[in-house]
Design goal:
Mean pLDDT of chain B: 94
Strand content of chain B: over 45%
Strand content of chain A: 35-45%
Order of helices and strands of chain B: EEEEEEEEEEE
Number of strands of chain B: 11
Largest sheet of chain B: 7 strands, mixed
Radius of gyration of chain A: 13 Å
Radius of gyration of chain B: 13 Å
Order of helices and strands of chain A: EEEEEEEEE
Structural class of chain B: mainly beta
Shape of chain A: globular
Helix content of chain B: under 10%
Number of strands of chain A: 9
Low-confidence stretches of chain B: none
Low-confidence stretches of chain A: none
Distance between the termini of chain B: 39 Å
Largest interface: A-B, 26 and 20 residues
Largest sheet of chain A: 6 strands, mixed
Shape of chain B: globular
Number of helices of chain A: 0
Helix content of chain A: under 10%
Number of helices of chain B: 0
Oligomer: heterodimer
């Protein structure tokens, strides 16, 4: 069981807005920045969001991140079929003194 | 273009040692954190540990007693050893590179290599 809790699945139709949550604690998200990764099957994961809400160059502005207290969220606007993937949040955990991932959310584009 | 490539046996027998090497091309490993991350079948990502190019290591507490990560800057490579493996260690193993200011902010990943633990 992951120390960062994500819903196992999410879905939406093309053009919709979808949000994926990531719940942590005061030892993790509460005091550290959150990253989000997109993982398409058979490929290497890709950094989507860093420092809670910053996009690396090349990541479409349809993707956005936010953080409040001990939770974070990834929002995808204008959902596209190629967004179908697994999404993971990640942060540092002070008590474990280690990086941790969420359990992952499988996004299906209907 | 920076590329990372994992190499090593795809099959390891129970109780033996899993050994993998990551070769970094197109860029230096100096100044970076170098990580091993795995994904068991049907499960999420798990951080195994990381090494700073200077040699300082940090391991997942749940695996710490069995893990060793080392670096060879002359060959631009770093390696993973996981001892006393069981079927639970069957996974896709990824190597990854991240900048010195944020180990979690991975900019380059390997494609991953499947390691199966079976007799």
């Amino acid at each position: 069981q992951s120390v960062l809790t994500q819903p196992p699945s999410a879905s939406g139709t093309p053009g919709q807005r979808v949000t994926i949550s990531c719940s942590g604690s005061s030892s993790s998200i509460g005091t550290n920045t959150v990253k989000w990764y997109q993982h398409l099957p058979g490929t290497a994961p890709k950094l989507l969001i860093y420092n809670n809400n910053q996009r690396p160059s090349g990541v479409p502005d349809r993707f956005s991140g936010s953080k409040s207290g001990t939770s974070a969220s990834l929002a995808i606007n204008g959902l596209q079929s190629e967004d179908e993937a697994d999404y993971y949040c990640a942060t540092w955990h002070d008590s474990l003194n280690a990086p941790v991932f969420g359990g992952g959310t499988k996004l299906t584009v209907l | 273009q920076v590329q990372l490539q994992e190499s090593g046996p795809g099959l390891v027998r129970p109780s033996e040692t899993l050994s993998l090497t990551c070769t970094v091309s197109g860029g230096s490993i100096s100044g970076y954190y170098l990580s091993w991350i795995r994904q068991p079948p049907g499960k999420g990502l798990e951080w195994i540990g990381y090494i700073h190019y200077s040699g300082r290591t940090h391991y997942n507490p749940s695996l710490k007693s069995r893990v060793t990560i080392s670096v060879d800057t002359s060959r631009n490579q770093f390696s993973l050893e996981l001892t006393s493996v069981t079927a639970a260690d069957t996974a896709i193993y990824y190597c990854a590179r991240s900048p010195s200011w944020a180990v979690i902010e991975i900019d380059y990943w390997g494609q991953g290599t499947l390691v199966t633990v079976s007799s």
